[in-house]
Every structure is written in structure tokens, then in C-alpha cells.
Request: fold
Amino acid sequence: MTEEIRSKYQAVIGLEVHAQMLTKSKAYSSDVNEFGDAPNTNVSVITLGHPGTLPKMNKRTIEFAIRMGIACESDITEFQSFDRKNYFYPDLPKGYQITQDRTPICENGRIFIKDDNGNEKAIKITRIHMEEDAGKSIHDVDVHDTLVDLNRAGIPLIEIVSEPDLRSSQEAYNYVTEVRKLVRYLEICDGNMEESSLRCDANISVMLKGAKEYGRRVEVKNMNSIRNVQKAIEYEIERHIELIEKGEIIAQETRSFDALKGTTISMRSKEAANDYRFFPEPDLLPLTVDQKQIDAIKAEMPALPRDLFIKYTKELGLSEYDAYNITDSKEIALFYEDIVSCTSNHKAAANWLMGDIKSYLNHKGKEITDFPISAKTIGELIAIIDEGKISSTVASQKVFPALIEDASKSPISIAESMNLIQDSNEDSIMTYIDEVIAKNPSEVERYKNGEKQLTGFFMGQLMRVSKGKADPKAANQLMRSALDKL
Ligand code: ADP
Ligand code: MG
Reply:
């Protein structure tokens, strides 16, 4: 497609994200909520919807949903009830899902993302409601039959529905990244898209730029990574534009993403869509949430990535780049918080974390939670560099690896025992300078004749004779004045 045609159109995207809650038990029963257990082991008569059994609401799910609502600055609904969404499917033993059709737990929220120009943009959140997951139909294990695992049936979900505020596949990518970051910070969902604990349906339409009305939308499902959400949307945008350019009409339908081909295929048209026959769930009491409960949950909430980002850029003087990278993961941000509680050199703390520490973790395939050196020790390491006792190069190349080997030692004791303490004593530096000058008469002559760039050469020599221990800052000044006096 030519850039000229493409640029006539504006994409409009709204996302529905399902997040599995990290509760111990299921949404309406005491069955264990655990990924990867042997199939059909966490399945009681309640999950199976046997006649005479009654669901009971899991309190933790409500708390988790409210956490997300608070994080999205939503209104929390005071009086809530539950509804049945009826449909027949082999992995839905009850024949319906218990959901919140009429009274979602949260409404009118917003999530901040970066737009395509790198500016902050608020994406409105229409609603967040609680519901339960269906079981899993497995098509690729047995050649003849579809297998059903009901362990997943009844696992609590929240569904986060955005307004159609997103304008490109990149914005959609950024949005899902933010949602995943939020649920992870809030510790309500592990955010793992490969294991489907976080799933995203994308609604996509295109319209001519400047048009007043949105185009006909298509819903795409089955993307198992954020990158695939972006790819599916990109594919759909182009497909829509091509159809419109040919004068064809977009069919309102649900499509499935094929990750191998990078394309989407039609699953069902909206005309043939299920009529879910929602009706009030008669077996669950309505739920009331009062301000006191909301305040109690708010009081327990961790700092959120956006708050930390603002703190790091506005108060600690970090660049947006550093602040974004540090707040990308809650564990990294918590470690950073620990380091800066031990040092006032916030920039050095960021550099150590995103530099030597991150590369060590990447190299070893470890998480920050497995990092052997304590934040306090990193603070001490930064301090002895700032005091001029060791250079940053020596700290990175010698002391840091030694600390990895034995994290119980202090940086200063390592620097001392490895004989790394920097010499900033003027007299001893002058001795090195005299030696360098005496050993290199021809370079001295050239320097005197105006080749000032030889300072670098002399500094190199000085580092050699001092075995890297001369404090480079002090040595540099002394060297220049010594040479200029000749
Ligand atoms: P449904 O119940 O059919 O899924 P909703 O009204 O709940 O319909 O909308 C679902 C999603 O579709 C929302 O995320 C919304 O932002 C998005 N959406 C609605 N209209 C459009 C449109 N014209 N283009 C893209 N997305 C849209
Ligand atoms: Mg939908």
C-alpha cells in the first residue's frame, strides 16, 4: 500500500483486556487457582455447576478489582450485582459465565500512555468488571479429539474495557504494556500473555482523516504477546483500507490472529453472534462497597509506576529514559528505591542499576530479586567512588565482580585488600609525573613545541607507572601544570 493512500486514513482502536486474578482460589468456589496443575484436578461440583450447588463470591477478587480501579482513577460502583452470560461450549460446564453486565465494579477511569509523538496521553477506561474464566479446549494434543481441561473454569478475571481512544498500533502496544505494568505493580495478575493470564481483544476501525463518524469495527482475538497485538492491528488497518479503497464494505465480525502467518481470519460474523441472554444471577447476593473499604484498599496500595516516574524525573533529576527503564519493572524500581535510600547520588544509582547490575542479570539470566549484592553495599560503592578512593573504572572492573563473588564484604575492604585505593596525594602523584617526564624526553620536547594533545599520552604513561591508582582528576591537573611549567 502506498504511503499516500495510507495517510488518507485514521485508525481507531479500543481494547478489551482480560486479566486472571492471582487469588488462591477461584472466583466463586474454593477450588485452587493454579496454572499448570494436572488437567481437571481443581474441579469441584461448584465449578461444574452441579444442581444444588451455590457459588460464593471470593472477597479477594473484589479487592483486586478495586485496586485496579483506583490505579486507573475510576469511580468504584457502590451497589453491584451479578449476571449470567449464557452460551453453550464444551469448556463451559455450567452453560453460563457469572459476570457483571449491568453494574461493573469500576467506571470512568483512565490510563496514561505515550502517544506516537512521545507525549503523554490519557486513554479513557469505560469499565472494569469481574467475571470468571471458561475452561480450556485443547486441540493440538490428541490427533482425533479435542480435550477439555476445566482447571481454568471459574478462575477470577477482570475485564478492562477502553474507549476507542487509541490511534495507532504503536499506541495499542504502549497501552497493553501499561496495563501489564499496572497489574504487576498491583500484584493482582502475573501479566503473562504466553500463559494467557493476560489476554487482549482488539477492536479496530478506520475512517478518512477528519471524518466525524468512526468506521465499522472488527474484533480480533488470540494474540499471545503484546507484539502480536500490534501486528494484528497493523494487519487489520491495512486490510480495512484496501477494502474501503476498492469500494467494499467492512463486515462487522470477530477475527482470529494467526501468529505464524501474521494475518487474521474470520471466526464469526456479528449477525451470527451469540445472544447471551444476560439475566441477573439469582444465586449471588448483590454486593455493596463503601468508601471505608475503598480507603482501606487505597492505604495498602503500592506506589504506581507513573508516580515513581514523576518522582524520579521531577525530584531525583533522572532523565525520562532512565526513569522509564527503572519503573518498567516493580522489582527493579524497588531495588532502586533501596539504593537511593542509601546514597544521595541518584544518577550514579541509576547508572549502576541500568549498567553493571542489569548486564550481570542479563548475562546470568537472573532476576533482580536474585541479585547477590545488597542495595546498601551498592550505596557504599558509590560513596567510595564519590570520595575519590577508587575510580569508577576500578569499581566496575575489579570491586563489583569481587562483590558478586562475596557479597558479605564491604567495597572499601575489597578495595583495600586488592590494593586498589586511588592515590590522590599530591606528593606521590608528583613523583609519578616526574618519572613520566624523565622517561619521555622527545614527547616533552614536542609538547613544548605546541603539541598539546600529547597530554593524553602523558596521562596514559602516568596511569601505567602508578598501576592505575593515581586519581585521574587530580593527576590531570597536576600533569598539565607540570608540563606547562617546563
Ligand atoms: P461489544 O460488547 O460488542 O464488545 P462494546 O461496546 O463493549 O461492544 O465495545 C467493545 C470495544 O470496542 C471497546 O473497547 C470500544 O472502545 C471499542 N470500539 C467501539 N467502537 C469502535 C470503533 N468504531 N472502532 C474501534 N473500536 C471501537
Ligand atoms: Mg467485545
Remarks:
- The mean pLDDT is 95.
- The two ends are 71 Å apart (CA to CA).
- Residues 426-484 form a domain with the Arc Repressor Mutant, subunit A fold (CATH 1.10.10.410).
